[in-house]
Please model this.
Amino acid sequence: MWSKMGENSSPQYKEMLQFSPVTRQQAGTYICQAENSVGRSDEEWADVEILFAPTILSTDPGEEESVMVHNKTVLTCTAEGNPEPEYEWLQQLSSGQVRKRSYTADLVIEDVGYEDQGEYTCMASNSIGGERRQVQSEVV
Model:
């Protein structure tokens, strides 16, 4: 029989546990135990990890922000994925060029200058089975 640790649902009396379709909620530790008229076996545990491409949950500020020269500003990107996403902040310059600004979830600009004007985009990415998965936020 199979049961999921931390859940009070009825155990599944199957030789093999299958998920179709696979969902993120199925991640966790599963316990397998055999039982017959003589008794029960020791428990065996199996950890199930669900891998999924990143999705951006939010960016802050959510819309255009005005910041005075020489002040500090912070742009924050929140994403989820498994494996944990890596972040990259990109700045679209008026010339059309793209400038990489940060490789963290927070882009901190300590002393804002005129060169910091532009549109910013957060990229979140991870790698599953050797394939790179990437998602891009709306322009901030």
About this structure: The radius of gyration is 23 Å.
